[in-house]
Automatic annotation (TrEMBL):
Coiled-coil ranges (or none): none
GO annotation, biological process: carbohydrate metabolic process
Matching InterPro entries: RpiB, RpiB_LacA_LacB, RpiB_LacA_LacB_sf, SPI_LacAB/RpiB
Annotated positions binding D-ribulose 5-phosphate: D8, H9, G66, T67, G68, V69, G70, N99, R109, R132, R136
Residues annotated as the enzyme's active site: C65 (proton acceptor), H98 (proton donor)
Protein name: Ribose 5-phosphate isomerase B
Keywords: Isomerase
Lineage, opening ranks: Bacteria, Bacillati, Mycoplasmatota, Mollicutes, Entomoplasmatales
Originating species: Mesoplasma florum
GO molecular function: intramolecular oxidoreductase activity, interconverting aldoses and ketoses
Metal-binding keyword on record: no
Family from the record: Belongs to the LacAB/RpiB family.
Pfam families assigned to the protein according to its UniProt record, in alphabetical order: LacAB_rpiB (PF02502)
Length: 141
């Protein structure tokens, strides 16, 4: 599975260790930056990951900013993206099973590294259930 990841200058403290961990687990990672703690703007990085998913360059995306909110909103502006910000595993799991989310956003000021790993694990392994949930997704348009 190919994962696109990105962050702003605040999310980088979570993105880098998560990238190492996912790489160790055998995932192919496409890292769209940022690559330093120098102040930048999260919409740049949410959009990059959103576009990568929408263009089929990656299967899923994981994005990081201070709260996860701003970068999830920017990813959601890309056509075909359903990004969710989560701070616990239950919503992450259900967001994939029911809402077929394709981008997960995490806040580095909200969750620690080990909780982030639990959230990501549940989200990646969850499978979309289709059926009535697909009907509802079709109604977003
Ligand atoms: C940056 O200060 C901060 O606003 C950003 O990381 C994020 O939390 C926005 O939603």
């Amino acid at each position: 599975m190919k994962l696109a990841i990105s962050c702003d200058h605040v999310g980088i403290i979570l993105k880098n260790p998560i990238k190492d961990w996912l790489t160790e687990l055998g995932y192919e990672i496409i890292d769209f930056g940022a690559n330093s703690e120098e102040r930048t703007d999260y919409p740049i990085y949410g959009k990059l990951v959103g576009e990568a998913i929408s263009e089929g360059k990656a299967d899923l995306g994981i994005v990081f900013c201070g709260t996860g909110v701003g970068i999830s909103l920017s990813a959601n502006k890309v056509s075909g993206i359903r990004a969710v910000v989560c701070s616990e595993p239950y919503s992450a799991k259900l967001s994939k099973e029911h809402n077929n989310t394709n981008v997960l956003a995490l806040g580095s000021r909200v969750v620690g590294l080990e909780l982030a790993k639990m959230i990501i694990t549940e989200w990646i392994k969850a499978e979309f259930e289709g059926g009535r949930h697909q009907d509802r997704i079709n109604m977003y348009k």
